[in-house]
User: What shape does this take?
Amino acid sequence: MNKDFNYLDEKPALEEIIEHYFEAIFVADSNGQVMLANPAAASILGIPLDKLIGANVSHLVSEGYYDRSTVLEVIKTKKSVMEVLNTKHGKKIVSNSHPLFDDNGNIVMVLSTGVERDIIREFTTTLEREREAKDKYRNEVEYLRDRNLEKDKIVAKSSLMRNVLLQANKIAATDSTVMLYGESGTGKEVIAKYVHRYSHRKNAAFVTVNCAAIPDNLLESELFGYEKGAFTGASNKGKPGLFEIADKGTLFLDEIAELPLFLQPKLLRVIENGEVRKIGATNDKKVDVRLIGATNKNLKKMIADNTFREDLFYRLNVIPITLPPLRNRPEDIVALAEMFLQEYNIKYRFNKYFGPGIVNDLLHYNWPGNVRELKNIIERLFLTTQGDEINSYETGITMPVKENIVKRPEGVDIGKSQYSGNLKEVLGQVEKQYIEQVIQECNGSINEAAQKLGIHRSVLFRKRKGHDDANKQHVVE
Ligand SMILES: Nc1ncnc2c1ncn2[C@@H]1O[C@H](COP(=O)(O)OP(=O)(O)OP(=O)(O)O)[C@@H](O)[C@H]1O
Ligand SMILES: [Mg+2]
Assistant: This one.
């Protein structure tokens, strides 16, 4: 504050402030006689201003303008007092009175302010509501973090995957529930986000909940939220559920087969009525959410085993989409491997590339972990290769696990249609094929393969290099 400010000099300004202040202000002397009051005080108490000024508060009480006086209590107790008063006109006023003392400790005046309780209530509820909204958005932001939907590039070179995308694209605009099936790592979440991105809901939240990751007893409150004080340990503010957070957007129920049986009818009710009820609440709330479920389990079998409700299954299974396993889409294996390699090149500022042998390795593995496994293996190959050319046999990574190798027929098939050229060329082709087969059987270990083939490892390297060069020439031709 300005040090030169002297309130006596500024008296007209102060009077102006008091006159226009929105709270009721009045000042009484030590006998309770009103010395000063503003129009807000007159209006809140329902007493004309000229009658209020000069009146004694004890008379105002006895005349029934209001039921108790904080000024009188301050005079009696010499302490600040805050009380709720009831006025003649049925208003409730939160009144605050403070004593001002002289040097001898005697009260010289009492300063009072008052506000209608309903105004405070309204203000606090608005504040609470704003806080709740802020919490909701904070939750939403947390759920959306690291889920940059635009960032995801989807590889779909194979006709199988193209069909999936086409199907997803066609139904994105509807509000129908989608069920995504497929082995782990086939891209169910990728497709769920794709559906959201191409729907009219794209600007609202995409919320993922992994039913397997959240303990059963917490899942209900995560999904539906709870009212304040709904149970011991509940936050006293209550909590919005994920359905509410996903309102106008998409809720992705991942691993939906893990939804506990006791929650299944509750989910069914939400789907059927479009309303959720928070734990501890007495009424339902409308929500507008598109549901996408995903599982790698066989729900039909679970229904037979009584671990998944049939009625819920039919409600969810409106648009079923099945992601094909990676081993059935070789075009995607190569394209995805290239894409991941480029991502790592950019990330680590390298210019690595696949040597000719590796593509063959990738194509002959059966990828039980699908795209996720491919991504991990490319990263490992990338990080463990010294030079720019990535070769599985150089890195020592034993990628193709024996039991996962797609079994080729025993022996070498030299049927007419498979080989062409002069004897030397055919022998070269047979040699190449057999060498690659043995290397795979030895889980990519060159030392072991060389031993099995009865040649020195340097000879094996040379031979493979020769095959690769021959391949390149073949491509150039
Ligand atoms: N077609 C694709 N194009 C690009 N990336 C893909 C594709 N399919 C899957 N991915 C990537 O593979 C990884 C696994 O995919 P996602 O999480 O969608 O699989 P999922 O089927 O949900 O697996 P899970 O059943 O284990 O949850 C992710 O990193 C994802 O980005
Ligand atoms: Mg997933």
In short: The pocket of magnesium ion (ligand 2) is lined by residues 188-189, 254 (CB under 6 Å). The chain has three domains: 11-120, 146-322, 328-476. The CA atoms of residues 354 and 390 lie 5 Å apart. The chain has 20 helices and 16 strands.
